[in-house]
Amino acid sequence: MLPRSLRWIDDEIAVIRTAGLERPARVRDGRQGREVVLDGRRLLNFGSNDYLGYAGDVRLTKAASKGACAEGFGAGASPLVSGHSLAHERLEAAIAGMLDVEAALVFPSGFAANTATIAALVGPDDLIASDARNHASIIDGCRLSRARVCIYPHRDLSALDRLLAAAADSRRRLIVTDSLFSMDGTIAPLNGLSDLARRHDAMLLVDEAHATGVFGRRGSGLVEEMGCADGVQIRIGTLSKAVGAAGGFVAGGAELIHWLRHTARAWIFSTAHPPAVAAAATRAIGLFAEEPARRRELLARAADFRERLHSRGIDSGAAEAQIVPIAAGSPAAAVTLAARLADQGFFVPAIRPPSVPENGSLVRASLSWHHTTSDLERLADAITEFCHA
Ligand SMILES: Cc1ncc(COP(=O)(O)O)c(C=O)c1O
Prior knowledge:
Elements: H1 8-18, E1 35-38, E2 41-45, H2 58-71, H3 79-83, H4 86-99, E3 103-107, H5 110-121, E4 127-131, H6 136-145, E5 148-152, H7 157-165, E6 173-178, H8 190-199, E7 203-207, H9 222-225, E8 234-238, E9 248-252, H10 254-263, H11 265-268, H12 275-290, H13 292-311, E10 323-329, H14 331-343, E11 346-347, E12 350-351, E13 361-366, H15 373-387
Parallel strand pairs: 2-11, 4-5, 4-6, 6-7, 7-8
Antiparallel strand pairs: 1-2, 3-9, 8-9, 10-13, 12-13
Helix pairs in contact: 2-12, 4-12, 5-6, 13-15
The structure holds pyridoxal-5'-phosphate.
């Protein structure tokens, strides 16, 4: 029984339940990969961001154990004090090398990297132009900065152009965007964005959370793949998705990183993530260069999967990569579709507001290098059967 001062929580949870938005706390048992055991059920895993299959890779486990043996497990303090270990130093060099930039800064999470970086770049006299479909960590970073935030429609360069023209008198202008959008699987028009940034004297921050490892010559992401590295000054990524470890980073010029060391509060006032995790992430970045076939194979299979769905009239929006949403509409419809797929042995999570707009609920298939062509054919068959029933 809740104490009286907390009883409002019961009322609020009842509202969430009635709207069909209550979330289960699922328990995963064991190592994840092509399959995952969730709440005791073994399912084909389409609900992880482990795009290249490194999260359960024993080579990362070995690198982490070696790192823990060398440096101990906990970082003990913030990076600014004594938490920045040799393992973190090597990781930052590996990230800067992968992205071909001067420097990088590692955060405990990608969420922290976004919130801290955005709040360190702009303030009350400035303007942020943010894509309508940006991730929650970008939205929170914008709020934290206290800058004026203008949301432009998803990937709409003309709207952004008008917005920036009208903000010429703000002290600084910052454009923020995901490169590969986490819910829609769409890709930002990075070349157009960097042209606009140049024209309007704006900074451009690109969050590559879902593109790191999957795109680019050595897995650096879409900025490099689309040939606009010169126009993107601030590059964010996570170590928790294709990298298969945990943590986040910001990368760019040496002066930018030096500035963030003095101003990024989640870096200054939060304990560094464990050195063993940094060692595992560094190993994965090495594997991106050693095993480029993984990203090629993943993207080829993802294209086949999207084409298969499309040819059967399934609505997966404008998805262009390994994140494939299947439109469901209401939260209840998404939950039903996910439950039916689970009954057939597939874990494809339902995504509901606030992660997506009202009536934009979906199930999201996150493809991994581990999936075989036959896994994807079977999933497409099951989706087709339920969506056309
Ligand atoms: C686009 C985007 N940015 C940032 C993050 C946060 O990354 P992390 O999970 O490492 O905190 C996510 C995580 O889902 C994301 O999708």
